[in-house]
Amino acid sequence: VLGGIEPSLYTGEIWYTPIKEEWYYQVEILKLEVGGQNLELDCREVLALLSL
């Protein structure tokens, strides 16, 4: 985990995703859930925001 985690700031499980390319840690987001509910987001848009 880059940067670590703080257990007091979340509940539930943390899901890990494999690194697609080690050079700059590119990952692919397929689905986002909060409280067990799928947020039904277009993950391509989320990835674009993370790239800013």
In short:
Pfam families: Asp. By secondary structure, the chain is α+β, with helices and mostly antiparallel strands.
Query: Which class best fits the helix and strand makeup?
Result: alpha+beta
Helix content: 10-25%
Number of strands: 2
**Helix and strand pattern:** EEH
Major beta-sheet overview: 2 strands, antiparallel
- Uncertain stretches: none
Mean pLDDT: 76
Please compute the radius of gyration using only Cα atoms.
Answer: 13 Å
- 3D shape: globular
Number of helices: 1
Strand order of the largest sheet: 1-2
Roughly how many Å apart are the termini? 21 Å
What portion of residues belong to β-strands? 5-15%
Domains, number:
1
Protein name: Peptidase A1 domain-containing protein
Domain Peptidase A1: 1-52
Pfam family, one: Asp
InterPro entries: PEPTIDASE_A1 (IPR033121), Peptidase_aspartic_dom_sf (IPR021109)
Structure report:
By secondary structure, this protein is an alpha+beta fold. It has one domain (1-52). The chain is built from 1 helix and 2 strands. It has a two-stranded antiparallel ribbon. A hairpin with a 2-residue loop joins strand 1 (33-34) and strand 2. The radius of gyration is 13 Å and the shape is globular. The two termini are 21 Å apart. 0% of the residues are buried. The mean pLDDT is 76. It holds the Pfam family Asp. Residues 1-52 form the Peptidase A1 domain. This is Peptidase A1 domain-containing protein.
